[in-house]
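Lab channel / #folding
Pinned by the channel admin:
"Please post every new chain as: sequence first, then the structure tokens as a reply. Keep commentary short and put observations after the output so the thread stays searchable."

First post following the new format, from NK:
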Amino acid sequence: ELKGKYGAIILSGGPGSCYASDAPAFDPEVLDLGIPILGVCYGYQLLNFIKGGKVEAAEKREDLQEPITVQSSDCRLFRGMTETQRALLTHGDAITQIAAGFRAVSWNTAGKVVAIANDEANLYGVQFHPEVDLTERGMDMFNNFLFRIAGLSPTFTPKSRHQAALDEIRGIVGDKEVLVLVSGGVDSSVCAALCKEAVGEKRVHAVHVDHGFMRHRESELVEQALGAHGIKLHMARVSKEFEEAYTSVKGKQVGPLGKTASPEEKRMIIGDTFMRITDKALADLKINPDSVFLAQGTLRPDLIESGSHLASAKADVIKTHHNDTALVRKLRDEGKIVEPLKDYHKDEVRALGKELGLPHELVWRQPFPGPGLAIRVLCSEGKAPEPLNDKDTETIAKVAKSYTAAALSVCELPVRSVGVQGDCRSYKAAIALTLPRETPVKDMDWSALFAIARSIPSEVPGVSRTCFMWGPPLSSSSANTRTVTATYCTQPVMDRLREADHIVTKVMIKYQLEYTLSQVPVVLFPASFGEEGKRSIVLRPFITRDFMTGKPAVPGEELPFEALEEMVRGIRALPHVARVCYDLTAKPPGTTEWE
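Reply from TO:
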């Protein structure tokens, strides 16, 4: 069935273990078809395991970008590359015995094998992820595999994908109408523009939902930008409806949103409320619900992180995206949703947006999640989660000391944040590092801080995120490190986050950073540090192209010292802010957003 139909096969990564009883079924004969095969992460381990090698749980898992050495001189997969490069390794299992017929062709800094090859059979496997930006020469590896080893030709182009998207919309919609939910981000804007091109302006109705979680003047700016491109927006101002919204999760009613602390429940309420607001918009626009399709700018990463079957039958839920809730999936199963970008990544959508003629400021606009600031507020009922044990706290302090002579103090923040480790969702502790005295950002040892942040999750599995925190030094034994302010998605809380976010936005515009920094989430979390009623803010300047992985912006390189100083100074001056942090964490192990 496969032979003669495919020119090459890639066995992808996944969250499981290939030796586990519940591992996905795999026919070993696939490896003997004579088709070139590349195994990635789980696929690498599976390839070795099926061919008689050993795969076992590693002593400790890895979730970091690190240097690797490749055998470029005689391995076709690494042809034309330097021997040393950086790659993303994220795994809990490891090959402990290489299968017969294979040889090691790459190693990490500890000397562990991270790639194998059987050149005669055209079988290759890599423990790292060549598909992400954090593997510096990953695209070159794919080029070598697909075009040199498998002998394929690169005939698939953005132009052909553009036409395929138009054909998909026309094929689904027929002579009916389309309702597009438009946030103003590039994904929904490109979706709206595609629908307009596919079926004509008169049959496309664009709706912008102002749920009360938008940034400062965001809705006005969205309306102006899309209006300039000929897309007229129907504005739905429904902040009260969202704050009072409920939904059902596995038969249980949850809500209202304005009193909900669980991050997953918040996302589900918001996603389902979007769908209900859509019904109201149809009535307001006097559109027959039976003659309209809902169009969404859903991307591939949204489906992967939501654990959608459209992306994978084995994907783990990292976080439920508002465009992939249970209600959305029901409408999708009923054939009522059009998602022309569901196989796209952010960089591909931007390329298509440029081709469609969308304004530069829309194509390169800072990504902003559909649920808005609601998922940039870490909610709390007023009680801190259970702290790490003493052994973990001591280990973290030792890691910090091993990278710098500076007298860093280590403090566990009284929150949990979402992460992604080994293709699985994590919900773990966050650590803050503080200095003994106020130090200008230009005089701080940022390389040491980032090195500490990379190492802590590998040494302490209960941690997925590390920050630097301004203010007097704090350790986990200091007074008031576990105090939190009850926090929910209410308008007074949103106003406080909006104020901090606007300070950051103004500084970004001043230093022309809005197109060079991929994304800059400003997150409010409920730590008061003993200052009653106050909360804290974390800055997350982030660099990525594919939005599947990425790294924190380095002060003094991607983020000017002066700009960072202005951001921090402005936010610390706000009377309701206790502390300000800078997120030092790559993705993985931390997601771009904290929730």
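NK: The longest strand covers residues 54-70.
TO: also worth noting, Residues 8 and 224 are 47 Å apart (CA to CA).
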